[in-house]
Design a protein that fits this description.
This protein is mainly α. About 75% of the residues lie in helices and about 0% in strands. The chain has helices spanning about 5-25, 30-60, 60-70, 75-95, 95-115, 120-130, 140-155, 160-180, 200-220, 225-240, 255-270, 275-285, 290-305, 310-315, 320-335, 345-355, 360-385. The chain starts with a helix and ends with a helix.
């Protein structure tokens, strides 16, 4: 699904949601409540996308990746592990889409520049874009949707306290599986290439400073859209001064905004028709390990059957406690490793690979995902049962 198709689906969903409001299926006050809940999330998505795109244009990701190559001292597995860490940080703070869209071509370029096979590095970014998206609310759109419910639950550091151990397990399991499948390609040494040329040092340093300031502010407790919007405004002013040609409308992910807005309305209409009662029978109600596996498994299946965002929205009403909500987030966050459409990040990743001349057969992706997704999700749920 490319950007145009995504926007068309969003328009259809918006029209369907509008019809539901007009017909009374979705009451106007409930539609207003959906809008009030969603606008800060979509504003954050727009702002952080602009920040990531402009930072990539300035060369921040290229320079960091080249620095990692030097730190590896020519050992392939060391470079891979450093890129694993880089992908986890980028995913956690700047969202999974940033890793899939912007980091993927960077690590592919680094691999090629140093004479290494790019596929192990490309699979690392797409898998970690999903499984490392459990750390923070800003890591994934589904996390942002769930964060307010965790705040209401009264946990001291709601999201990280609840999901941090599971996120660590998910990342560790992902890295182990990737190493098992790519261990031959990741052995040996390589000759370190020259670092990339920086077109504008002022842009590079300015963008780096903005990112360094932004990252801790995203977890400071203030609404995430606020520092993200300030960072986007700062970089926009910087680029207007140094490189105005880089400021284009394509920086705004309007296709995703339209799609998400329509999806929220459409799922809200289904909830108004009693979909939660139907799903409750499939997900159970307990908090023991088997019940949590059941809920996470339904989330995994739903994400890979349709998409992780509608799967979360449909199942959210049956996740009626912090632990069950965390299990659902694991299923829809770490589980979309099987089908291409399970996560928008996966589709964007595939498009970026094709743009740089790499074709990954979906059959290989699906087969590896069928093995990895259940293992990662099942292991990540286990820490929840110890609470």
């Amino acid at each position: 699904m490319d950007a145009v198709k995504l926007a068309l689906v969003g328009v259809v969903l918006l029209l369907a949601g509008g019809a539901a409001v007009a017909s009374g299926v979705l009451p106007a006050d409930e539609a207003g409540a959906i809008a009030e809940r969603v606008w800060p999330i979509l504003l954050f998505v727009v702002a952080v996308t602009i920040v990531a795109e402009l930072s990539a244009t300035a060369g921040v990701f290229d320079v960091v990746a080249a620095r990692l190559a030097r730190w590896s001292r020519g050992r392939i597995v060391a470079l891979w592990l450093l890129i694993v860490g880089f992908a986890v940080v980028v995913t956690a703070f700047l969202s999974l889409d940033t890793t899939a869209v912007l980091l993927t071509p960077v690590v592919v370029a680094v691999a090629r520049a140093n004479g290494l096979p790019p596929l192990p590095f490309a699979f690392t970014t797409v898998w970690l874009a999903n499984t490392a998206s459990l750390f923070l609310p800003v890591s994934n759109l589904t996390n942002l949707l769930a964060a307010h419910r965790l705040d209401e639950a009264g946990a001291p550091v709601p999201f990280l306290t609840l999901l941090g151990p599971s996120a660590l397990v998910a990342v560790a399991a992902t890295v182990l599986l990737l190493w098992i499948w790519h261990r031959r390609a990741l052995s040996g040494r390589f000759a370190i290439s020259a670092p990339p040329r920086v077109a504008d040092v002022v842009l590079l340093r300015g963008s780096a400073v903005v990112l360094i300031v932004l990252l801790p502010l995203l977890v400071s407790g203030m609404p995430p859209w606020l520092p993200a919007l300030a960072a986007a405004a700062t970089l926009t002013i910087l680029f207007a001064w140094r490189s105005p040609g880089a400021l284009r409308l394509r920086l705004v992910p309007w296709q995703l905004v339209v799609f998400a807005s329509g999806l929220f309305l459409a799922v809200g209409a289904l909830e108004a028709r009693g979909s939660a009662q139907v799903l409750a029978a499939a997900t159970g109600t307990g908090k023991d390990l088997l019940s949590l596996w059941q809920l996470a498994g339904v989330g995994l299946v739903g994400a890979n059957a349709v998409n992780n965002l509608p799967a979360y929205l449909a199942l959210e009403p049956v996740a009626d406690s912090p632990v069950r909500l965390a299990a659902l987030l694991i299923g829809v966050g770490a589980g979309p490793l099987i089908t291409p459409w399970a996560s928008l990040a996966t589709l964007l990743w595939h498009e970026r690979l094709r743009a740089v001349g790499i074709d990954v057969p979906w059959r290989r992706y699906v087969l590896w995902g069928l093995l990895a997704a259940p293992v990662v999700v099942a292991l990540a749920v286990i820490p929840l049962a110890w609470r």
